[in-house]
Structures are given as C-alpha cells and as structure tokens.
Amino acid sequence: MSLDGLDGPVTQNEIDLFIGFLEQPNRLPTTALNNKIADKQPGQDVEALGLMYEVTQNPQILDRMITYSDIFLSLRNDPVNGRIIWTGKRELVWCTKPDNGTLSGYAGSEGLDTAGHIAYTAYHILKTPCLWNENVTDNDPHKYGATYKERALTYVTEMDKTIKTYYLNYFIRENDSIYNPSSPAWDKLGEMDANTSMPWNRQQMMTNGFLRMAECHEILGNNESLINKYLNIVQVSIDWMVRNFIPVKTKNGLDAYRWTYTFNVNVTIAEEVSIHALYDIWGMYRAWQRKDKLNVNFDDMVKLANTMMYIINIDNKTVATRVDGTSDNTTPVHLFGSWAFYAEFIPEWYNIVANINMKNLKTDPR
C-alpha cells in the first residue's frame, strides 16, 4: 500500500491499493485461536474495511467485509458437534484456546469483539438500502443469505443468539456491569478469577459487540427493549471506567488522565499503550460517537487526548509504552489507527499518529 498524502480526501489510488492489499487471500483467517478474529489482524482488517466503506461507499469494500464476516461466523463453535466449554455445553461462542490445553474450555470477552466485527458489517449493509435486494457477489458460499439484506439479518440473528445464550447469562450482572462469571467452573480454568471485574480493555471488546448490535436493531426499528439493554451495558462500562481514571497534569499544565489495567486496588502500574489501552480509548470513542444516546463527557475526551498528545507522545516520533509516559523497554509501540480518532479534540495529533506509523504502512493497514 501507499499513501498519497495526509491532507485532502482519500484518493482513488489509495482506495485501489487498499482494496488490493485487503484482497490478498493469505489475510483471510482459518481459525479463531489466539484471538485471531478479535483483536488480531483479520479482526482489525474488518474495522479498516468498515472505515474505508464509510468514506468511499465502494461496494467492493463492503463485499470484502462480508467475506471476512462469513468466515468469522463459520468459525463459531458448533452447537451439535463443537467443543464443550466450561459451562458443560457446546455454547455458541468462538473458542480462542487450543483444545488440548488447560484453557480449552475458555470463551471470553474476545468473542464479543468478533461479534462486533460481524455486526459492523451488518450495520453497513443495513445503512445501504439500495443494495438490500441485490445478490451478494459471492454466491452465498455458507448459505447465510443470497441478498445483502438476508445476509445482514443472518448476522444480526446469530449475534443475538451468542449474546443472549452466553454473554448475558454469564458475564452481565443485574445492574448491567461486566464481570467474570461467578461459577466455580470458570474459576477452575485459571484464566481470570471468578466474580471479578473484567479489565477495561476486555470490557471494551465486549461493548463493541453490544453497541454495534444495538445500532443494527436501531436501523431495523425492532426490539427497543433489547436496544436499551445493550446500550445500558455500554453506558455502565464507560461510566465505571471513567470513574477510575486518575486525574493528572501534563508538563504544560493541562488536565489529563492516568489509568490502570483493571478495577483492582492491587493493580497500580499504568495501563499499557499497546492493545490494552487501544481498546480502552476505542471504547470511549465509540461511545462518544453515539452521544445522542450515551452520556460521554466532552471534557473526558479532551483529557484523554491530552494524555496522548503530551504524555504518551515523547518527541512526535516515538511513544511511551505506558499511559503515564514511562516505558518498560525500547520496543517501538504500534499506534493502531483508532488512536488517531482523538485528533477530533487535538487536530495536530493526527499527523503525529500517521507519521509514527508510516513505516508500518506497507505491511499493516490498521
């Protein structure tokens, strides 16, 4: 891929090269193991495709999203012949651990991030009614629906099943807060203690699924109670995280935030800038985008932007490995594209993120 410049609209050359890059067959996943279709490359590819579709409305990009999402859905655990997990059932989840290890029965927050990617595809289809009655160009290899609308409805129906039968049953408390399951069977996995709060990044993986599914139901105009349930889970998670942000000052005296990995008094080290903080700030920004329905404070977004611009950013060329400006080692940090969203609050931040990541452009579109 290449970039024609950081200013102005996306060029046709950039669009063509982006499509060509994402249409490489070796980018498509064959497994859900190791979070492959959640926060790893294929999952992030769908997010990149969705953003480009918002900008271009290019149907070839939407078709590629559908190819990914079909594969993601096909990799979900089979309820008849699939893996029995910690609940003692063959749940409609994505198994992200090998089936011969101690964590073979695990299925956690990553699955709702995958659901969010699939729902993001459904959302774009549903936002494009001129395509609804047209046949998808792939000839429906998985029999998920011949037309675009049929495909979107399959995605929505199946993601609702996963959420209702698994995540609402085991991970969501009566007040809509997100916790690890309380079952001793979950505890035996040894992945995370039962009945403990879910770390912030994992919560925001889950809110991705809840928010995107709420948006699909909004377009369809159905199931208002479910929409409200999904949105309230997002709101509770965001409120909880913000309450635990620690106010700090930047070197130039601006208000900013420091935070840790989870709601736990024994966890005092600052959050990692890598994939962990990425999901924290991504969840906040997604909620901000839906401020018509969710309560997200502008000042909180500015403080997070200040953290990025004046604490994480070291010299406009490198970034710290933790959100308090400290670094554990000299390994370069990859700032995924979602960090650039905060240029809405500090415009200069966009060029900094772009330039830091320019060296990654040939191998990673994120």
UniProtKB/TrEMBL annotation:
It comes from the Eukaryota. This is 15693_t:CDS:1. It comes from Cetraspora pellucida.
